[in-house]
Design goal:
The protein contains 5 helices and 5 strands; from the N terminus they run E-E-E-E-E-H-H-H-H-H. With about 180 residues, the protein is of the alpha+beta class.
Length: about 180
Amino acid sequence: MRVLTDSEHPVEIAYFDRGPIDAKDLIVGGYWSAYWYNGLIYASEIARGLDAFKLTPSEFLSQNEIDAAALVQSRELNAQAQSKVVWPASPLVARAYLDQLTRTKSISAERARTITAALDRAGKIGSSRDRNAAAVVRDLNSLTNALDGDAAKAAGQDGARMKSLATTMRGITAKLH
């Protein structure tokens, strides 16, 4: 089983193989399917059953990305249905996009720090009645506009991630209004 990211430029970030069923005789075995479901990866092995895997952070995957992936919960899995995943507008999802952009060096360290600080402040706001809500909304709006400008200049997956980060930040701002 291999875990890959970025369908246009796949990079293996994890690998697992149970090894041969028998050291001497050729016996059919191995994984025939693997699916992500509610924060875990389930793999069906032909001869030995089902394995469940939990990802851990590495140079290829941050804890924010793992936690954001686990936010999407399904009551059932039908891999043939190709269900659309919709990420909630939350600081955690924004941090996952930010981690991806930081890893590819597509966003400046200063902009990343500024966005992180704004997301931290947004996470502490209890409601739109909070006296700090208006200032946080202004900061997020300003950063979102800057991201829109950056996204227009960026290419490929990085531009798409910047747009997704900006959309997520707009959703966070909408909740604070």
